Amino acid sequence: MRLTPPKKIVFMISLILAIISLVAHFVDIPVATQYQYWVMVAAWAILAAGVFLKGF
User: Fold this and answer.
1) Residues 6-17: b if buried by 16+ CB within 10 A, e if exposed
2) What does the angle CA 23 – CA 46 – CA 35 come to, to the nearest 5 degrees?
3) Which end of the chain has fewer beta carbons closer than 10 Å to its terminal beta carbon, N or C?
4) How far is CA 17 from CA 1, 2, 40, 42, 55, in A?
5) Is the pLDDT of residue 55 over 90?
6) Radius of gyration of the CA atoms of the chain, in A
């Protein structure tokens, strides 16, 4: 299995979702606060897909 670095856009989307989830832990964001765990899981899944899938 070969791992590849994710494209910059995939990394940025994952980073933005992770930051939203982290901020939602401390500040009340209407949608993200309720689903902060799932937002963080989505950020991890996008980043993992970027590493495991070639060209993603």
Assistant:
1) beeebeebbeeb
2) 40
3) N
4) 27, 26, 7, 8, 21
5) no
6) 13
In a domain? residue 2: no
Whole-model pTM? Answer: 0.86
Question: Which residues have a Cβ under 8 Å from the Cβ of 18 and sit 6 or more positions away?
Answer: 40, 43, 44
Say if 22 falls within a structural domain.
Answer: yes
How many structural domains is the chain composed of? 1
Calpha distance 53→51 (Å, rounded): 6
Domain residue limits at 44: 8-52
Tokens of 52: 């495991």
Average per-residue pLDDT for the chain: 93
